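dumping this here before i forget
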Amino acid sequence: MSDQRNFFQRALFSSFLSKKTDGGKIAYLAVCAAFIVVANTLLEFRMFETQISVTFFVSTVAGVILGGLSGFAACFLGDLLGFFINSWGMTYMFWVGLSTATVALIAGWTFTFFRPKIKGLVFVQSAIVCVLSFIVCTVAISSTGFYFYNRVMGFSTAVMDYVALKFGGEVTYFAYVVYRLFFKLQILVNVLNSVLIFLALPLLKTRLKAVFDDEEEKTKEKNPKNS
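structure:
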């Protein structure tokens, strides 16, 4: 029973956040949600037809600091609040918030549960987060949501022209994903965020060692006779 409780706590909070008081936990969740709001309102802009955002990066950091489920909750709430502040004149698209929150979930669980004793672990963890977030969040969640939304509302002329030129047929899911990643340059946004992750997380490790340190090694340090 205690093992199940410990597993749930680790799924919910990072080792760093689990040591905080209830008030401290709420404060950290609020701060991370606020950073998502800032990312959505002040750190997001359009370049030609591409929407440049660092939300992927901010969500990853939030997930690492807060933990998987806590990061998910903070990022989903932050994305929702960010929409109300800066909606770009569009309707609310829940899959965008779901994608943002899932990035935090992946990051939190990767840094909590994947801790083999290898050199450069933070870089391996970062690579796993970037790859999984791209597959699960950018492709499986965001692109799928936008595909079905546009299929119902009607694809733009740009989409249909691109698909006709490259694939010579109707707008299939695969064709739309290719259009979004390479014509709309969403792939470059992912690369930008991935670079920020690889630069920032090693630095964060030196500042917040409690987030990264393996709890088993901490136990060994406290009980050297048992090691």
